[in-house]
Amino acid sequence: ETGVTQTPRHLVMGMTNKKSLKCEQHLGHNAMYWYKQSAKKPLELMFVYSLEERVENNSVPSRFSPECPNSSHLFLHLHTLQPEDSALYLCASSQEAYSYNSPLHFGNGTRLTVT
Amino acid sequence: AQTVTQSQPEMSVQEAETVTLSCTYDTSESDYYLFWYKQPPSRQMILVIRQEAYKQQNATENRFSVNFQKAAKSFSLKISDSQLGDAAMYFCAYRSLGEEYGNKLVFGAGTILRVKS
What we know:
The complex is a heterodimer of chains A (about 120) and B (about 120). Chain A is mainly β. Chain A has strands at about 5, 10-15, 20-25, 30-35, 45-50, 55, 65-70, 75-80, 85-95, 105, 110-115. In chain A, strands 2, 4, 5, 6, 9, 10 and 11 form a seven-stranded mixed sheet that branches. In chain A, strands 1-3-8-7 form a four-stranded antiparallel sheet, with no helix packed on it. Chain B has no helices and twelve strands. Chain B has strands at about 5, 10-15, 20, 25, 30-40, 45-50, 60, 65-70, 75-80, 90-95, 105, 110-115. In chain B, the strands form three sheets. In chain B, strands 2, 5, 6, 10, 11 and 12 form a six-stranded mixed sheet that branches. In chain B, strands 3-9-8-7 form a four-stranded antiparallel sheet, with no helix packed on it. Chain B has a two-stranded antiparallel sheet with strand order 1-4. In chain B, strand 8 and strand 9 form a beta hairpin. Chain B is globular. The interface of A and B includes residues 41, 100 and 105 of A.
């Protein structure tokens, strides 16, 4: 039990498909994040939610649409993706969004391949 | 904006020996946090160790320790008595405390550590 669970672990989708990534945290945290991990590049922060409110959106294309229905669940809705969107998408949570005393807890990620 | 640089894409170490992973960062802030995360093949990112910039004493966690050189903006990770389970990708990360930077966590590109038996 990692505390942060992501599903699915692997996803292959065509450019015209619509799919969603799911993240669930069992740690009672108030903040959740989406990161993108591409080969040979640093992790890129995509979105931050604090108490279900989006507090950060780092110039992410609109084909990525996050949703946070409650503090335990986070989704990333995908539509009309491009092959360069293929990457590992990591979800993380922390007790607070902007507290330096609040380390991130990561899930195992979803390996996304866009064909 | 802050940047984190890990200059070693890959490192190898013999089991039971010691290895040091390098990390440098660029910032104009005086107070911040630094972290090392480990990502094994399972892909889960695991916090290994963290250091508060205002603390001069280097952080240690069992076989893991850091060499924090604030003036040089260097934050290396030393793994002693390396074990096969230490094989992973290691990420250095910086967390700003300044409101203008939104307390973001900025990651380096990572270093792959291979442990030989």
